[in-house]
Amino acid sequence: MMRIKLTVAYDGTGYSGWQIQPNSPTVEAALDDAVYRVSGERIHVTGASRTDAGVHGLGNVAVFDTDMNIPAERWAHALNRYLPEDISVISSVQVASNFHPRHCDTVKTYEYRILSSVFPIPQLRNYSWHVKEKLDISAMQSAAQVLVGEHDFKSFCCVRTQAESTVRTVYSLEVSSVPAPIPGAEFVVIRISGNGFLYNMVRIIAGTLVQVGRGKKSADDVRKMLMAKDRCQAGQTAPPQGLTLVGIEYV
Amino acid sequence: MMRIKLTVAYDGTGYSGWQIQPNSPTVEAALDDAVYRVSGERIHVTGASRTDAGVHGLGNVAVFDTDMNIPAERWAHALNRYLPEDISVISSVQVASNFHPRHCDTVKTYEYRILSSVFPIPQLRNYSWHVKEKLDISAMQSAAQVLVGEHDFKSFCCVRTQAESTVRTVYSLEVSSVPAPIPGAEFVVIRISGNGFLYNMVRIIAGTLVQVGRGKKSADDVRKMLMAKDRCQAGQTAPPQGLTLVGIEYV
Questions:
Q1: In angstroms, what CA-CA distances link B105 with A231, B100, B186, B195, B251?
Q2: Per-residue model confidence (pLDDT) at position A144
Q3: Residue B234's Cα: distance from chain center in Å?
Q4: Is the pLDDT of residue B214 over 70?
Q5: Rounded to whole angstroms, how far apart are CA atoms A46 and A249?
Q6: Is B26 within 8 Å of B90 (Cβ atoms)?
Q7: For A127, which residue in chain B has the nearest alpha carbon?
Q8: What is the DSSP string of B129-144?
Q9: What is the C-alpha to C-alpha distance for residues B90 and B88, in angstroms, rounded to an integer?
């Protein structure tokens, strides 16, 4: 028996998210299906992060056990032969038989991408949030710093969350901007690393920082939101297509 | 009567190219339709560059004449209300009544994007050419310089071309690379500006430069191809989805 850890990149546009559900395409179901087609066995992969519908992955992680005599690093190539073109396994390695992708100390990194532009860029419609206003980047940067560190992020998670504790540590939260390829447009990129994120937490942080960028909220308002521990206090949830799970580091 | 010049961005993935054809979706037909829905008149837009199926635009140009009493700069907003989300008018200005987008001195700029990576990145499948090998960027840069200047590009155009003269001037042709967001991967970007391009010329140049990057051809081979004035001499035509018409400058 060998436990294989896959790193998975996917375009979330066509999926109802990572987690298997009846009658909807999911990344997990596509991986299960590819494993079956390679091995002939109905093996279920276990994912690290159950990204939402429309959210993308560059480095999500999944593990499964197999008795097949395929070298671990060949699994990536074998699975890609059967995966649809919007999912790609970008590495496969053997891990210890007790390795569990969710029960480990991890550093997860997400990127949220905003196109700030009067007009949309069609090529980016599934990979960014189009915001018409020019955003105040330095105000967003100051507000972002408020959220760095260990905090109770109850105000920044979906009320539907089932997490027992809402305390998480944000290691870094950076806001940067680069010119976008049409006149007057820019990309604003929010990059966040932490030991874990509550349901919708990154999208609520992105939505809140955009309100700051629009001048509707201040860094001090964000501090008050954090203290309130009440979901009604934080900003809107940014749409899913701007979000990418960049990677997960096991520490 | 007012002549309006539109700058148009589009995701070419879902289109059989720019130019109208029966029973296939085209960018031109979508624009004609949007003009009709705004004005109630069947006015035909005239495009500057008839990009192929799957090729993208950030700054293609189209003009049309109208008697409607809408300020020129409002047309962009009015048309976007009726355009599908994979087409966006990013500017509309009034031009002289004798302005023709194809019969003018222009500088056209295209970008061809390659993902050099063992594994594909699904999010980029419609916006880049996935090449598994690592490419020799400096060899590509040297070979690119051979093509800069006024030359007969007969070897670098599709045999189906109807152009009378195959002489064109390439003002600049730059090859650069930046890291791509998965381990070991990089983007190779070919950016070319010229006074006009023959049918498939940019894609044949991109295909040829990739052969150079793979070590299959040298800068000297490219020089011989150019001299040969024979399409059979140049490299393969790179696939359409890596190509974007970045912009057209009227000089």
A1: 58, 10, 35, 7, 6
A2: 98
A3: 19
A4: yes
A5: 16
A6: no
A7: B123
A8: EEE-SPP-HHHHHHHH
A9: 6
Chain A residues within an 8 Å CB radius of B125? 11, 85-86
Q: Do A119 and B88 touch (CB under 8 A)?
A: yes
Over the stretch A78-101, which tens digit does the pLDDT of each residue have?
999 999 999 999 999 999 999 999
For residue B104, which amino acid is it?
C
Q: What is the CA radius of gyration of chain A?
A: 19
Residues of A in contact with B58 (CB under 8 A): 121, 123, 181-182
Round to whole Å and give the CA distance between B209 and B216: 10
Between CA A168 and CA A226 the distance in angstroms is: 12
Residues in B closer than 8 angstroms to A11, CB to CB, are: 122-123, 125
Per-residue pLDDT at A161: 60
3-class SS at A60? Answer: strand
Domains of chain B with bracketed CATH: 2-95 (3.30.70.580), 106-250 (3.30.70.660)
Q: Which of A11, A52, A221, A230 is catalytic?
A: A52
Tens digits of residue pLDDT in A99-116 = 999 988 899 999 999 999
Q: Tell me the chain A residues in contact with residue B88 when contact means C-beta distances shorter than 8 Å.
A: 119-122
Distance CA B74, CA B19 (A): 25
Q: How many CB pairs under 8 A join A and B?
A: 76
Nearest chain A Cα to B83, which residue?
A: A122
Tokens 């671990």 label which residue?
A72
Contacts of B80 in chain A (CB under 8 A): 119-120
ipTM above 0.90, yes or no: yes
Which pair of structure tokens corresponds to residue A244? 């990418």
Give the span between the Cα atoms of A31 and A46, in whole angstroms: 10
Mark whether A52 is an active-site residue: yes
Query: Count of CB atoms within 10 A of residue A34's CB?
Result: 22
Measured between CB atoms, which of B58, B76, B122 is closest to A11? B122
Q: Does B86 sit within 8 Å of A58, measured CB to CB?
A: no
Picking from A88, A123, A183, the nearest residue to B121 by CB comes out as A88
B interface with A, Cβ–Cβ below 8 Å: 9-11, 56, 58-59, 76, 80, 85-91, 119-123, 125, 127, 181-183, 244, 246
Helices (H) and strands (E) in chain A, counts: 5, 10
Residue B188 parent element (H or E):
strand B186-194
- For A118, phi and psi rounded to 5 degrees? -60, -45
φ, ψ dihedrals at B118, nearest 5°: -60, -45
Contact assessment for residue B10 and residue B28, using Cβ atoms and an 8 Å cutoff: no
